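Technical note accompanying the year-one report. For the benefit of new consortium partners, we illustrate the data format agreed upon in the data management plan: each record pairs a sequence with a structure-token string. No post-processing was applied to the example shown here.
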Amino acid sequence: MTDSLGVWLRRSRETRKLDLDDAARTLRIRRRYLQALEMGDYEALPGPIQARGFLRNYVRFLGLPVEDALARYDAETGKTPAALYPVTGRQPAPRGADVAALSRTGERTWAPPPPSIEDERAAVRANASGGVMRVLLGLIAFFVLVALGSYVWLRFGTGSASPTSPPTAMATNGTAVQPTAETTLPPATPSFPVAADGTVRIRLVPLSHAWVSLSADAAIVYQGIAAPDQVVEASAEEILIVSTGNGGAFQLYVNGTDWGVLGDQGEIVRRAWTPMGETSLDAAAQEDS
């Protein structure tokens, strides 16, 4: 009789003499999630999309065929999530216990962990330094234009021109009525909806084809080019991080509330949320350290 998915995973790990804590530390996946996969307790996992991501990384770590593991998971759960694009690109070589995840043919089956907090912090600092430089250049250009305009006005202006008053409307009783300027209020930012279960959930609806990366609690849930008919979502107990090269290509929903588009068209966006609201990546790095 064919073993269940959990028994298959546990026996494969024990055959390779790997400890569950070592696997959790290497993959940066919580030990209880790996244990839930081995016990077949899929209700303890955050959601079907994240469960498939955890399972994919774990079977690669164990050197098992990914398609067989996903087929067993679908057969046991009866769920078929939306198709996701695979993570592409060159992967770094495994170290230490990761050598056990190489197949007999020498093909790489190990999936690297998501970027470390130091990598996130370095990226944020690089973006911040570039933004400060652009602001400084903009201020310098503004003051140069103001100085040039003042010089031209003082040198060639007659100084006799007086500002023209706006036309005065007359009421039906003959009293002059001064026009009032319309006041346009900026759109209100939606308040953060705190979930009752203490988690935070992000849902991205692609408006066009665009690359996006979504990680939950330091585990990559999705990374690739999302299509307009594909929904990318995840939930986390600590932090969710979204990265994309085109913020205007995604409609953002936080805990079921519509937050509008993720950013401007062509804008590089990196945003993070905790169960208490949106946070900066620097603040998240300080809390983790």
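Partners are asked to follow this layout when depositing records. Helices lie at 5-15, 20-27, 31-39, 48-62, 66-77, 117-156, 281-288.
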